[in-house]
Specification:
Blueprint: E1 33-41, E2 52-56, E3 61-64, H1 74-77, E4 83-90, E5 97-103, E6 114-120, E7 127-132, H2 133-136, E8 145-154, E9 159-167, E10 174-179, E11 192-195, E12 203-211, E13 214-221, E14 228-234, E15 242-243, E16 256-262, E17 269-275, E18 280-286, E19 293-294, E20 300-301, E21 306-314, H3 315-324, E22 333-336, E23 347-349, E24 354-359, E25 372-374, E26 379-381, E27 393-399, E28 402-412, E29 422-430, E30 435-442, E31 452-458, E32 465-472, H4 473-476, E33 485-494, E34 497-506, E35 509-515, E36 523-524, E37 546-549, E38 556-560, E39 566-569, E40 583-584, E41 593-600, E42 603-610, E43 619-625, E44 639-641, E45 653-659, E46 666-673, H5 678-681, E47 689-698, E48 704-705
Parallel strand pairs: 3-20, 24-28
Antiparallel strand pairs: 1-2, 1-21, 2-3, 4-5, 5-6, 6-7, 8-9, 9-10, 10-11, 12-13, 13-14, 14-15, 16-17, 17-18, 18-19, 22-25, 23-24, 26-27, 27-28, 29-30, 30-31, 31-32, 33-34, 34-35, 35-36, 37-38, 38-39, 39-40, 41-42, 42-43, 43-44, 45-46, 46-47, 47-48
């Protein structure tokens, strides 16, 4: 049949090179595996149920090919108009490739009866055959769905086997198998059941890998108390699978689509799976295929995959794919490994031939080796340490016959102040420790689903030490275990000893925990402090607390709210409410969340975040008052900080403010989208945020001068 291929053979990018027999970077022969190919689809929307490709040089960091667009038109290879769950396999003799996919378009419902078999000599051009199970095999005439096929070679039968799940009326999903004919266009016989779930529960998304003479079948099962990804083991490919106890996935969330692959030149395996309700993907690692640890912090992808598989490839194969399916952001340089670089914030622009390397404070620009990381087959010149103190250094990136010059800039970037994903920063100065402490939301979890809080300490607001987890909802809080957000902190001297009161959001309520140290551990009070909305408030959420001690009266006030701003006075114990009922002091229609209150020169300042944290336009506004309870005076020009499009700094919001003790010197602590990946993430950037600090200055009349967000950040305090 004729297939429409979605690539641009006329487009020639940096990574296009002649198909050489040796990698110019490491000298390996082309038949040795040097990289990985990830086949996947992206979702249930228009055009998303289609085969896509991504590549990786290490099995951890993946880059989409073809600008994350399909490499085959789904209409050409399916009956439904959509294909899902692609599984790719190299032929045993190395002469070509097989791929199998589910023939299903979610917009037409979840009932389907067909799968598609594909074969190719080069992974560029594919021929295909649709196998409709009920039409082909009368004994399965009532099958309601045929899901997630995969292929494996059976050395004993010297044949390729396809295995997949099927559902018949009155039963549950079961995993079947059948051998494929010699030209990979049909099944030799009717499917037979491969795996018999001892719990007689649905089993789907089978994935088999062989290790030490045994076959490991990973599968997803369903049930009220017994759902997740499990593994069954057998000495035979086609029978005898015994389920191991427990799950191998490392999350309590709904998962599917497991894929297992062995890391090149390693004894370790990666098990990845689709956390489909959250729209995320989790990677885990194991050496025995039974016990897995999460490695999400080591993973990066510039795309959002659904149920896919990974296959090792050679340098020649990788270069062939790059030539056929170029992407605008692939340069051959994939990153840099010098520990002085904030690797999450490297900016590589192929269209401008530039690379920006943000460095930690103290890096020596006069003698700096970026240790650039490249895809296999790519060489970089010059090598070793260079002088970046006078501006960009020219590098030549060679992919065989093609050589391109890039201007590489290395510069100290104190923002973000801590590496990794953190948001909603609170900050205090501890008189006890004579240090600053940062208390953020632990971010990077789909749907803001983090469950623990950390703190960081610093003597100069630039160099920060990770002090670890100070409160874990799952271990330390009895009344909830979800949605650890937006804390606030205060240090109090009580009866000659310092106490620390930590107010936090969990499950859209406000709790309080207490410690004798600013770095914890903290003990929860046992119940939420704020659980009901103020009288008359219908919408919004009880989130984002802010604690404030009035320096003029010594009274302590707790503010909170999303969609509204409420305040109560606290008792001297700091863990109970003194006010009879909350007072609502919402500034105006721009108020969304993230209140911050502080006092300067006789004025009370109220700050808040406007818009949605998932929006690039998230920003901070302010008002002033003569009392901590208002009324609020809102200046005509009341922007505190907002995005800087030219600097690609977006969604600057939800801040706190810190004053240097004894000085009229102030700093704004806020979060932003992760840079540079945030802009391409869409709404997901709203839970991939980073903490920054910039100077906060005032006019003579006390009005705030709008803060311009920077990459450089501030200089260390002396």
């Amino acid at each position: 049949m004729n297939i429409k291929f979605l690539f641009k053979p006329s487009v020639f990018v940096l990574l296009l090179c002649s198909l050489v027999l040796f990698s110019c970077a490491d000298g390996k022969k082309e038949n040795e595996y040097t990289a990985y190919l990830f086949t996947y689809f992206t979702g249930n929307g228009d055009g998303e149920e289609a085969i896509r490709y991504a590549i990786s040089e290490d099995g951890y960091n993946f880059h989409a090919l073809n600008n994350n667009e399909p490499i085959i038109d789904s209409d050409s290879i399916s009956r439904s108009g959509g294909v899902r769950d692609p599984h790719i396999l190299r032929k045993e003799d190395g002469s070509g490739y097989y791929m199998v996919v589910t023939d299903l378009l979610a917009q037409k419902g979840w009932t389907n009866t067909a799968m598609t078999l594909l074969k190719s000599d080069d992974m560029l051009s594919w021929s295909s055959t649709i196998i409709d199970i009920p039409q082909t095999y009368p004994e399965f005439s009532e099958v309601m769905r045929v899901w997630a096929p995969q292929t494996i070679y059976d050395p004993s039968a010297k044949k390729y086997m396809v295995y997949f799940s099927m559902l018949e009326p009155g039963s549950y999903d079961k995993i079947y198998y059948a051998y494929v004919n010699e030209d990979f266009t049909g099944l030799e016989s009717a499917p037979k059941q491969l795996f018999f779930n001892p719990n007689e529960k649905a089993s789907i998304d089978g994935d088999i890998i062989k290790k030490d003479g045994k076959f490991y079948l990973f599968y997803k099962t369903e049930g009220d108390r017994d759902k997740g990804i499990k593994v069954a083991i057998s000495d035979s490919l086609t029978s005898g699978y015994k389920a191991e106890p427990g799950n191998v996935d490392q999350t309590d969330k709904a998962v599917e689509g497991s894929g297992v692959f062995k890391l090149i030149n390693s004894e370790d395996y990666i098990l990845m799976y689709d956390v489909y309700i959250d729209g995320s993907y989790q990677f885990t690692k194991s050496s025995d295929l039974k016990n897995f640890e999460i490695v999400d912090e080591d993973i990066s992808m510039n795309f959002h995959p659904r149920h896919g598989t990974v296959m090792p490839i050679t340098t020649e194969e990788m270069q062939r794919l790059l030539k056929a399916f170029p992407s605008d952001d692939l340069t051959g340089v994939t990153g840099a490994s010098n520990s002085a670089i904030k690797t999450n914030n490297i900016v590589i622009k192929r269209d401008e031939n530039t690379i920006y390397l943000p460095l930690k404070y103290g890096a020596d620009l006069t003698n700096f080796d970026p240790e650039l990381k490249t895809l296999p087959g790519v060489a970089v010149s010059p090598e070793g340490a260079q002088d970046f103190s006078n501006g960009p250094v020219s590098y030549e990136i060679s992919t065989g016959e093609e050589v391109t010059s890039f201007e590489v800039t290395a510069a100290v970037a104190n923002n973000p102040v801590v590496e990794g994903y953190y948001a909603d920063p609170e900050i205090i100065y501890s008189e006890k420790d004579k240090k600053y402490y940062l208390y953020p939301t632990s971010d990077g979890f789909t749907g803001w689903s983090g469950t623990y809080f950390k703190t960081f300490s610093s003597e100069d607001l630039v160099n920060w030490t990770d002090e670890g987890v100070i409160l874990d909802l799952e271990k330390d809080v009895e009344w909830t275990s979800r949605n650890a957000w937006a804390p606030t902190m205060i240090e109090k001297e009580i009866d000659g000893a310092y106490k620390y009161f930590y107010y936090f959001t969990a499950a859209q309520q406000v709790g309080v925990a207490v410690s004798d140290s600013p770095k914890g551990p903290f003990k929860d009070s046992g119940a939420p402090l704020i659980s009901e909305k103020p009288e008359g408030i219908r919408g919004g959420q009880n989130i984002d607390p802010d604690i404030f001690e009035d320096p003029q009266t010594g009274k302590n006030y707790l503010y909170w709210g999303n969609g509204f701003l409420a305040v109560v006075e606290l008792n001297d114990d700091m863990t109970t409410i003194k006010s009879e009922k909350p007072k609502v002091i919402t500034p105006d229609g721009t108020f969304r969340e993230g209140a911050e209150v502080f006092f300067r020169n006789g004025k009370y300042y109220f700050m808040w975040a406007e818009d949605d944290t998932r929006s690039p336009n998230y920003k901070v506004r302010y008002a002033t008052a003569d009392s901590p309870l208002g009324p609020l005076n809102i200046p005509e020009d009341n922007i505190v900080i907002q995005k800087d499009v030219e600097k690609e700094i977006l969604a600057t919001g939800h801040n706190s403010v810190i004053q240097v003790p004894g000085k009229d010197e102030w700093y704004l602590v806020y979060h932003r989208f992760t840079r540079p990946k945030g802009e391409a993430m869409g709404r997901a950037a709203g839970y991939h945020r980073e903490v920054s600090i910039d100077s906060l200055k005032f006019n003579e009349d006390g009005s705030i001068i709008e803060v311009k967000p920077t990459l450089e950040g501030i200089a260390p305090l002396q």
